[in-house]
Specification:
Layout: E1 43-45, E2 51-53, H1 56-66, E3 70-75, H2 80-89, H3 93-101, E4 104-109, E5 122-123, E6 130-131, H4 134-146, E7 153-157, H5 174-189
Parallel strand pairs: 2-4, 3-4
Antiparallel strand pairs: 1-2, 3-7, 5-6
Amino acid sequence: GLWGAPLKLISGFPPPMTYSESPYGVGGSNRESTSAIVLPDGAHKGPHDIMAFTDYEKGLAYAKSVNKPILLDFTGFACVNCRKMEDYVWSDPRILSILNNKVVLISLYVDDKRELPIEEQYVSKETGKKIKSIGNKWSDFQITRYKANAQPYYIILDTNEKSLNKPAGYTPDIAEYEQWLKLGIQQFKK
């Protein structure tokens, strides 16, 4: 809203609150501030201040160091359903607790336009296209490894990069998404 109030009715169309200069509203603050927490290398505060990685290798290394499963999130800056999941589902206290405490979140933006360094650019073996941007790289990774090209697209992995349950897409039902998360975490503990 005008003064920073959430606009859940049109969630997904305007940029997410985390892109805002005042993500907690004008004069507002996060009552449960995590500013004292030192983030590991490559991590940042994502939606709802969830610690997230946007680099797969750094997120994987961190997951190994803390022995937690990975929630791999194929997303996009312009993905309406991704923002809806973040605003409606991830904001639920049950889901937020899981995302903050039980998994390592790696969010890969398939529409990230930033150019890869020349030495990291390549031609995709899967599509034959020149991979020039970070988003191209993550999109190619999703297509090559998971045979999918949809956002949001969620996969729970162990630290050996093995899928722990079937992937999930847009899941607006909080209880269903919670059950899916818990199943993957349970498989990790076996």
